[in-house]
Write a structure and sequence with these properties.
The protein has 22 helices and 25 strands. The protein is of the alpha/beta class. The protein has three domains: 248 residues, Glutamine Phosphoribosylpyrophosphate, subunit 1, domain 1 (4-Layer Sandwich), CATH 3.60.20; 186 residues, Glucose-6-phosphate isomerase like protein, domain 1 (Rossmann fold, 3-Layer(aba) Sandwich), CATH 3.40.50; 142 residues, Rossmann fold (3-Layer(aba) Sandwich). Helix 4 crosses helix 5, helix 11 runs parallel beside helix 15 and helix 15 runs antiparallel to helix 22. The protein is globular. It binds 2-deoxy-2-amino glucitol-6-phosphate.
């Protein structure tokens, strides 16, 4: 997830770009860059910096170099997905002539094929990014006589994947060309200025006359003028956006806080994470894993090591690995793993899971695993994080920056990436037949839509949560993949609402904890259909017989379950091993609602930090 800004028609172009990037940093801050046309010289002026949070300041330090009367310009703040955050990989990217520049948010799924064709025809690429291929594709079209707008339309017809782009060409110094497919982008204007941006906040500083682009629409933005075409060059009318917010609210996409915004970003986070890695036929490709099929076939045991929500993702992953790939797998809390003197060897693959890639407990566990002879893979959301640099291979989620301290979209992206890895391992080891691989792939690829359908029920989840907002003791129960979901739901309630919430394997209650159950107790149970559903409902009966109120996460339309509990959180039905991706969402909403009812700051809960860098 990156941030894009473009402007034309103002002598303050560079300041407008930098101010816009500052408002977009929540979308990524690995690196930043701007480019502006110099109409007098007939060239482009570019500055880039890969200083993480200090990147924009480094650009500001160079403002004395900019052209006296800048033309159109574009800017970008990056969240790396392809290629580490370096100056060379920072956007804007340019073509061989240096006269075409482009910024991009999204993933070009077929960039390797496009790059091979460009390399074969003599283009010199200078970065490891997927984005740069667009600059060279546009260069070819411009060389063939196309205007910048037509060149962009032609090259996007060859692109598969998601994109929001903005491009400039030295030969048309007042023109911005912007386009999108799935990734967000808006355009706007005043009488004399034109602007494009990834979100409303960054454009509001310039104008409130804003328009939304639909997929595969290309806008040609000039000072005070916007013309929009489809990819075939047919003119279309953009949709006017009515904005009721101020800039600060707009940074949250109109949501009251980052957590609710990030909950609603989950379908896209999962979609981006799966993009280009799974085919509907069950084919898989994880470019950055860096472990050969032969090395994967030699693995005799996997150990997932993590903390908090990432550990809960590991508990799901171990089940997927054992059920799909047929390899022994376990999950451990990092702070325990690193001190218990684990017996590891070269047949053990340790997978550390950390959205930040910096959690110190997990980092030390990773180093201990390597000391003891294991190969290590790091699953993280941050390209070039400490763990990704030290690991033998990496698995990147593509959730974009997660600002809320409580993990939501990163947790779901971890689940999606881990299950993709499990499918990959199963395929490489020949553990599943072709139709089984395709069936699981189809289930994974359907998750973004299932999540969208789940989020459509957010008001229902909130209404159920409000009935229990005053309760001080909760129990979360689940079996098999339901238990990690129960753990995650309990953690969310603890860290956001500051309420006691304990999670147990449902079958464990009769071994002691059931003595806690009395009238007034509230039990949340994961009761979506599986081969263990009847056993789960038996546990529900045990709870209700002792006076507890029971809230069930259940399949949509499952009236039988609904008739056996006090409240239902309905979710779309998905295959059991994928169900945690969907079943967690109502519990995120439940915890969020109870926390808000108690007046808590859901983005910055007390006593917590987003990255735990102390033991
Ligand atoms: C989850 O909501 C918490 N914020 C916390 O448990 C978190 O998952 C844990 O600290 C691990 O963080 P990491 O994924 O960055 O390593």
């Amino acid at each position: 997830m990156c941030g894009i800004i473009g402007v034309t028609g103002t002598p303050d172009a560079c300041e407008v770009l930098l101010a816009g990037l500052e408002l977009l940093e929540y979308r990524g801050y690995d690196s930043a860059g701007i480019v502006v046309a110099d109409p007098e010289a007939g060239t482009l002026w570019r500055a880039r910096a890969a200083e993480r949070a200090g990147s924009i300041q480094r650009l500001r330090d160079r403002l004395d170099e900019v052209p006296a009367t800048p033309g159109a310009g574009v800017g970008h703040t990056r969240w790396a997905t392809h290629g580490p955050p370096t100056d060379a990989n920072a956007h804007p990217h340019i073509d061989c002539t240096g006269r075409v520049a482009i910024v991009h948010n999204g993933i070009i799924e077929n960039y390797r094929d496009l790059a091979a064709r460009l390399d074969a025809t003599g283009h010199k690429r200078t970065s490891a990014t997927d984005t740069e291929v667009l600059a060279h594709l546009i260069e070819d079209e411009v060389e063939a006589g196309a205007s910048l707008g037509e060149a962009v339309r032609r090259c996007l017809r060859a692109v598969r994947g998601d994109f929001a782009i903005a491009a400039v060409h030295a030969a048309e110094p007042d023109l911005l060309v912007a386009a999108r497919r799935t990734s967000p982008l808006i355009v706007g204007k005043t009488e004399t200025v034109g602007v494009v941006a990834s979100d409303v906040a960054a454009a509001l500083a310039t104008t409130r006359e804003l328009y939304a682009l639909d997929d595969d629409q290309v806008a040609e933005v000039r000072p005070g003028a916007i013309v929009v075409y489809d990819l075939d060059g047919v003119r279309v009318e953009p949709t006017r956006i009515e904005v009721a917010w101020g800039v600060r609210r707009a940074m949250k996409g109109g949501y009251p806080d980052f957590m609710s915004k990030e909950i609603h970003e989950q379908p896209q986070a999962v979609r981006d994470t799966l993009l280009g890695r799974i085919g509907s036929d069950g084919s898989t490709e994880i470019e950055e894993l860096a472990l050969s099929d032969e090395e994967l076939r030699a693995v005799r045991r996997l150990v997932f090591v993590a903390c908090g929500s990432s550990y809960h993702a590991g508990l799901v992953a171990r089940q997927a690995i054992e059920r799909w790939a047929g390899v022994a797998a376990e999950a451990e809390v990092a702070s325990e793993f690193r001190y218990r003197q684990p017996v590891l060897d070269d047949g053990t693959l340790v997978v550390v899971i950390s959205q930040s890639g910096e959690t110190v407990d997990t980092l030390h566990a990773m180093r201990e695993a390597r000391r003891r002879g294991a190969r290590v893979v790091a699953l993280t959301n941050v390209v070039d994080s400490v763990m990704s640099r030290e690991a033998d291979g990496v698995l990147y989620t593509r959730a974009g920056p997660e600002i809320g301290v409580a993990s939501t979209k990163c947790h779901l992206a971890q689940l999606a990436m881990l299950e993709t890895f499990a499918l990959h391992l199963a395929r490489v080891r020949g553990a599943l037949a072709g139709d089984e691989l395709a069936g699981i792939a189809g289930a994974l690829l359907s998750l973004p839509d299932a999540l969208q359908a789940t989020l459509a029920r957010a008001d229902e989840f909130a209404a159920v949560a409000e009935r229990f907002a005053e309760v001080e003791d909760f129990y979360f129960l689940g079996r098999r993949t339901g238990f990690p979901v129960a753990l995650e739901g309990a953690l969310k309630l603890k860290e956001l609402a500051y309420v006691r919430a304990e999670a147990y394997p449902a079958g464990e209650m009769k071994h002691g904890p059931i003595s806690l159950i009395e009238p007034g107790a509230v039990v949340v149970v994961i009761a979506t259909r599986s081969s263990l559903w009847e056993k789960v409902m038996g546990n529900v009966e045990e709870m209700r017989a002792r006076g507890a109120s029971v809230v069930a996460v259940a399949d949509e339309g499952d009236d039988e379950t609904a008739g056996l509990v006090d409240a239902v959180l309905e979710v779309p039905s998905v295959i059991e091993l994928c169900s945690p991706v969907v079943n967690v969402v109502p519990l995120q909403s439940f915890a969020y609602t109870v926390a808000r009812a108690r007046g808590n700051d859901v983005d910055r809960p007390r006593n917590l930090a987003k990255v735990v860098t102390v033991e």
